[in-house]
Specification:
six-stranded mixed β-sheet, 4 domains, Spore Coat Polysaccharide Biosynthesis Protein SpsA, Chain A, seven-stranded parallel β-sheet
Length: about 700
């Protein structure tokens, strides 16, 4: 599915089977380019690029299959004027269930890694066109003239890390590489190299990683890194040899120590042979190095600082190797851009949609992300497809009905802060292996008792038991908890104690238990609002420019009491017809989050019955979050009435924070934390329930 001029080419790398005859017979439209000897992955692809006639070349491994539209998506991002001349496809395992390549990273010794390799894949995963340090050679697109001009794949690499080397070289020479998430291909593992012994492959890995840094690093970088890289290569060899070091200690006369021969796995020698080949290739490496350094326009510091991945990842398992690397790095020293801490990657997971119109929980997470992004590398994950974005943090979507859709975001995070209920919906949170902060600012079990109060008692009891089990699971899972007020914290401490989380261990860590749960309120912008346009007065039918406007800044839930307010307005307008009441929301924006409630219909019905609907009482369909300040600044009074339910005592109402932010005087029903504090401060008048 590519409408442009397309040349299909197969390079035959001196195959010994009937491949060439098969292609000529069955695929006459494919151009065949043959080599009389095996040039390796690097030489074979270079040969194809030289023979090609197109402006762009795309390399595709022989063990890949592709989606019909992959080529369109692979080529689309190319923008030579900005330096973007290379793209990488999204490579999945053959069955499409797991990740093969969605990005890469390079450690300081020149080894390349495939990020998220083997992670569960869903169609919502890895869909951002991010810059990459290198493109995987298995599905790589590049401008042909530049590929040839920079030397193509280094033919001396033969195979492995040649794409890492090319990528770093491109960045050093001023070009850019980008991930093309819509270019989906599938990889059959070991389709080519599965029969090659591991010790033979290891020679290439070790040799090519060293060659990569020798060619591409600046002198100041190479002088510090190369000695450490060589010593770590020797360390990997010795660890693979599995030697008994006591046999080599002077004075050990044990029979085993006196043997003149040692049986060592071939793999152990592969590391040393890789080093030996570097020695043999040093003249050619030096020539290549001089060419690259003479043309480079980006420093090593600039290149590594473009990518926030750790640069000291170890390439061998176990604490012994990690400790050796740490000792060498700390003792001998390497450039600080390798060791400087990368920003902590904080993932916030909201259970609601993020968009132009948002209810309280979504607002909370948007504001938390805004503030925390000043200190951390923040990603905000929201249910659905986010409709708004921020320059300060990434906003990504996931699907609560597809639990695996969050996994790729969890994998990339250092710390996760999630709405507590999501532990029930996203099982991966339960065994995260990294710090999990749970936000329990909504006492949902109290809310649900009111939501379901119209059901038969037996059904209510069953649902309450289910919700209590969900809540208990949260309280047993989180490493740290946040809530919205000190009153909420007291409530949750009792719950945590009932779940065994208030114990000698948590007490010893902090006798105030604030390292277990603390207060994180929210909801008010740091800067006061400034009117940017008209909203209601003189604009909305029935609301005049000089009317006195009462505003209800949110939705209508079952525990609110808009009915008493509408009745009060009915009495007031007999004497003051210029008084108008505007509700900014009715039902929740997303019925999958909060089920439809009866209160909006009851409120509209009462307003209609009293003859107030659309003359003195008006119902809006939620206000865009970024425009709410215009509505608030036009209002003369902020109002919020609720019933005397237990939910009220532990609530933290976003709308009240908005009123305070806009400097609105308020008339409120008492009982919740903010209302009481507002009354004490003299900015709110409290009234009794149903008054």
């Amino acid at each position: 599915d590519y409408p442009g001029a397309l040349e299909l080419m197969m390079v035959d790398n001196a195959s010994a089977d009937a491949s060439v005859a098969h292609m000529r017979l069955n695929h006459p439209g494919v151009r065949l380019v043959t080599s009389d000897h095996n040039l390796g992955f690097t030489g074979g692809n270079n040969l194809g690029a030289r023979e090609a006639s197109g402006e762009i070349v795309v390399f595709l491994n022989n063990d890949m299959r592709v989606e019909p539209d992959w080529l369109r998506h692979l080529i689309a991002p190319l923008d030579p004027e900005s330096g973007l001349i290379c793209t990488a496809g999204k490579i999945l395992h053959w069955d499409g269930r797991a990740v093969d390549f969605v990005g890469g990273k390079i450690n300081f010794t020149g080894h390349g890694f495939q990020k998220e390799y083997g992670a569960t894949y869903t169609p919502r995963s890895y869909n951002e066109p991010v810059p990459l340090p290198f493109a995987c050679g298995g599905a790589l697109c590049i401008q042909r003239d530049i590929f040839l001009d920079v030397g193509g794949f280094d033919p001396d690499f033969f195979a492995y890390f040649e794409d890492v080397d090319l990528g770093y070289r491109l960045w050093a020479l001023g070009y850019r590489i980008q991930f093309a998430p819509g270019a989906v291909v599938y990889h059959r593992h070991h389709g080519t190299s599965g029969q090659i012994p591991n010790h033979q492959l290891r020679v290439l890995y070790e040799r090519n990683a060293l060659a990569m840094i020798i060619k591409n690093y600046e002198a100041a970088t190479l002088d510090r890194v190369l000695p450490i890289a060589l010593m770590l290569t020797v360390k990997r060899s010795l660890l693979n040899a599995r030697l008994d070091r006591d046999d080599y200690k002077l004075g050990n006369n044990h029979r085993a120590a006196r043997r003149a021969e040692e049986t060592v796995p071939r793999l152990a020698f592969s590391f040393l042979l890789g080093m030996e080949e570097i020695m043999d290739q040093m003249p050619q490496l030096q020539t290549k190095r001089q060419t690259i350094q003479a043309r480079r326009v980006r420093s090593d510091r600039e290149i590594f600082q473009m990518f926030s991945d750790p640069r000291l990842d170890t390439v061998f398992p176990g604490m012994e190797y990690a400790n050796t690397q740490e000792t060498l790095v700390s003792t001998l020293g390497i450039p600080d851009f390798f060791t400087e801490p990368t920003p902590t990657k904080l993932l916030l997971i909201c259970h609601e949609a993020i968009g132009e119109k948002m209810a309280g929980p979504a607002v909370r997470y948007w504001e938390l992300a805004t503030v925390l992004s000043k200190h951390f590398d923040v990603t905000l994950a929201a249910h659905g497809n986010p409709a708004i974005h921020s320059e300060g943090f990434a906003v990504r979507g996931y699907d609560r009905s597809e639990p695996d859709s969050i996994i790729h975001l969890l994998n990339g995070a250092d710390v996760v802060l999630a709405f507590g209920y999501l532990v029930h919906e996203l099982p991966a949170l339960a065994n995260l292996g990294k710090p999990l902060i749970l936000d329990i600012y909504v006492p949902f079990t109290l809310e649900n008792m009111e939501i379901h109060s119209h059901l038969p008692l037996e059904t209510q009891l069953r649902l309450n038991q289910q919700y209590q089990e969900i809540l208990d699971r949260q309280l047993r899972t989180g490493d740290f908890f946040i809530c919205a007020s000190e009153r909420q914290r007291d409530y949750w401490l009792g719950m945590l104690a009932a779940n065994g989380r208030v114990n000698p261990s948590t007490y010893a860590a902090d006798k105030s238990l604030r390292r277990l749960i603390d207060v994180v309120p929210f909801g008010m912008g740091a800067e006061p609002p400034v009117k940017s346009g008209p909203a209601l007065k003189g604009i909305h039918p029935g609301i005049g420019p000089d009317d006195k406007l009462l505003i209800w800044g949110g939705g209508l839930w079952e525990w609110f009491d808009p009915l008493s307010l509408i009745e009060a307005v009915g009495q007031v307008v007999k004497h003051r017809p210029d008084v108008k009441l505007f509700f900014m929301g009715k039902q929740h924006l997303d019925p999958s989050v909060v089920p439809a409630m009866t209160m909006p219909g009851r409120a509209e019905g009462l307003a209609k019955e009293l003859g107030l609907l659309d003359s003195h009482v008006f119902f809006g369909d939620w206000v865009p979050y970024e425009a709410r300040h215009n509505f608030l600044l036009e209002a003369d009074l902020g109002v919020s009435m609720h019933l005397d339910h237990i939910e009220t005592r532990f609530s933290f109402r976003t709308r009240l924070m908005d009123y305070i932010w806009a400097g609105l005087p308020m008339v409120l029903t008492g009982g919740d934390t903010i209302a009481e504090r507002a009354a004490t401060a003299g900015v709110a008048e409290l009234v009794a329930e149903r008054d």
